[in-house]
Design brief:
The complex is a heterodimer of chains A (110) and B (124). With 110 residues, chain A is mostly beta strands. Chain A has one helix and nine strands. Chain B is mainly beta and 124 residues long. The chains are: A mainly beta (110), B mainly beta (124). At the A-B interface, strand 3, strand 7 and strand 8 of A face strand 4, strand 5 and strand 10 of B.
């Protein structure tokens, strides 16, 4: 089991809004930044959101991140077929002294 | 542009060792920490550890302590990850990633870019 808990799957039709949760605890999300990565099979993971809610240049504003206490979420609005991928949250854990990833959420566009 | 290019795929026998390289270009190699992350087939991303290319300091995930070594060759801007005593469940794609550097923030920052990944297959 991952220290950060994500739902294994999420889905929506084109144009819909999908939200992915990432639940942690004080030593990780509570005390540190949350990052989100998009991972397509056969490719390198791609940074989507940094420092809880910041979007790198080139990432569409359809993607947004938020954090509250020991949980975080990623929202994808205006869902598109190219958004089909695995999404991972990540943070530092002060107790483990290491980086932790959520188990990943597979997003399917119906 | 900033790039990380990894060594090619390989097959190793159980009990053997593998050393994956990660060559950096487009930036000052010693300024940014390098992390290693792997993904076994059908599994999620798993962090293995980090290395500071400037001083060689490292930090490893507890799971890999005693079995992994991260090093670098500054002269060729290349980081290495060596994993020993390989088992079949070490079969995975191994990625290196650069951590952003912000002197005003001592904690973990984002990974970008990532290497293209190196498939290591452990099989007899």
């Amino acid at each position: 089991q991952s220290v950060l808990t994500q739902p294994p799957s999420a889905s929506g039709t084109p144009g819909q809004r999908v939200t992915i949760s990432c639940s942690g605890s004080s030593p990780n999300i509570g005390n540190n930044f949350v990052f989100w990565y998009q991972h397509l099979p056969g490719t390198a993971p791609k940074l989507l959101i940094f420092r809880n809610n910041q979007r790198p240049s080139g990432v569409p504003d359809r993607f947004s991140g938020s954090k509250s206490a020991t949980s975080a979420s990623l929202a994808i609005s205006g869902l598109r077929s190219e958004d089909e991928a695995d999404y991972y949250c990540a943070s530092w854990d002060d107790s483990l002294s290491g980086v932790i990833f959520g188990g990943g959420t597979k997003v399917t566009v119906l | 542009q900033v790039r990380l290019v990894q060594s090619g795929a390989g097959v190793q026998k159980p009990g053997a060792s593998v050393k994956v390289s990660c060559k950096a270009s487009g930036y000052t190699f010693t300024t940014y920490d390098i992390h290693w992350v792997r993904q076994a087939t059908g599994q999620g991303l798993e962090w293995m550890g980090w290395m500071n290319p400037n001083n060689g300091n490292t930090g490893y995930a507890q799971k890999f302590q005693g079995r992994v070594t991260m090093t670098r060759d500054i002269s060729i801007s290349t980081a290495y990850m060596e994993l020993n005593n390989l088992r079949p469940d070490d079969t995975a794609v191994y990625y290196c990633a650069r951590e952003e550097y912000d002197p005003s923030w001592p904690g973990l920052d984002w990974f970008d870019p990532w290497g293209q990944g190196t498939l290591v297959t452990v099989s007899s």
